[in-house]
Predict the 3D structure of the following.
Amino acid sequence: MGQRTLRLCSAVFLGFIIMTCLSSAVASTPVDVYILNPFSGDLGVKGQTFSGYWVGEIPVKVGAPTSEYPPQPSWGEATKAFCMQYDKTIYVGKKYGAELAPVNDNAEWRAVSYLLTWQYPPLSNPEAARLQTAIWRLLNDTRGYSYVKPSWLPSDVDNAARQLVALAWGKDVVRGSDVFEWVKPVSGNGTSIMAGPGEIVTLTARLTTNGVGRANVKVQFSATINGSPLAVDPAEDHTNSTGHVEVTITVPPNSMGSNIEVKATTKGVWPTLYLDLSDINRQDLIGFDTSFELTLSTNVWIFARIFVVPEAPFGTLLVVVACFSALLVKTKRVRLTSK
């Protein structure tokens, strides 16, 4: 296959771009990274080529250090990656030594994680190129100098990436150890409140880590009444500075005996480790999960139920809100793949 340069950074031919976050922590766990051909149709990666530079997902294999070149087909674990530097080079068909380096829990990496959570996998080649460029933009300032658009990168791609950065900046994602729960008006299972058909019920949930609210995490809401969709307001929102987020349900008129189920859900893809290539002239990589736990994926959802009961004596209407024990947390260590 030869040395085909993956252009995703300056002075790169047919290569991949991704930005490097310099970690203050000491790198550990040596691995080898083998760069596969993104133009091979059976690898399922998305991206675009501009003037010979590849911008998008990179197919790679990661495994224990090996002297084989190229490695045997059975070697390593296949996954996808994004480049961390827009101004360095890697080559298709080359094997690089690397260390698994820990990611810093700072604003840049939280924003990258937000994009990996809510914008990945890309549905099209242009989406993959925009996402890759946004990652360069987010991580480059960590390197101590400003990002400069490469001359070969189209302005529309760079501008779209800037909008993704603005969307993700200041945001965060849930982690596997966080606690997500309803706190008001329900504060535990079996709690009830009184209301009536046509009245408005506002439910409050809270996301915490070690008892402290986790802010700026997207939460999506949905509801059903007797199994049919019911409008909620809002459909999604972000937790506030104390980790709280609210959703409002209007109980439909003439809904005696109905069962309203409200669902709040959030998720997070946190890149716990990145691939720190030992050659400073080469791209560092954000790889998706393998047995090396390069990323950790978490999905959390909670339910509340509103039971609309018949009119009681003296015209009292009861809406019983029962927050039942259906807090579901899934923490996945399996590799993410495009659908």
Observations:
- The first helix runs from residue 107 to 118.
